[in-house]
Amino acid sequence: FTFPKWWRTTGDTVLIIPPSQHVCEIYGFDQQKWIEAQRKKLELVTDKTIVVREKQGTRKTRTTLYQELLDDKDVYCVVGYNSNALTEAVWAGVPIITLGKHITLPVARNNIKQINNLYRGDVSQWLCYLSYSQFTTEEIYNGVAKKIVETWHNV
Prior knowledge:
Elements: E1 13-17, H1 21-27, H2 31-45, E2 49-52, H3 65-71, E3 75-80, H4 84-91, E4 96-98, H5 124-132, H6 137-141, H7 144-153
Parallel strand pairs: 1-2, 1-3, 3-4
């Protein structure tokens, strides 16, 4: 089991992950208009098939994008706003375009025009930052968080 997966460089499908209705309400935009705007932008810069993946069910009942991407080798990249699905795509080795503020920005492109120059660099430092943002309050106070950071970063 290799995690994260090596960056994918092939595929004929661009997968759009729309922001949730909740996110759309917070940022004040219409989900369907957002989807159509991204589709039109993509059609101007690529001839790849564009597929929209709508959320189905709840977090407990829907499948993870990670597993879907491991199974479907035809996905070239994932375009999203600020979804956890973008993180799953990076773990699966599928390049991403992140169009909103999100933790994936350091390992993504942030403009659809960059679709032919996707980020495929090292993600190890980003994975450390990601995991370090998950420390519990107890781990911060009891010194576990500090010890881990010092051990792995020669601080």
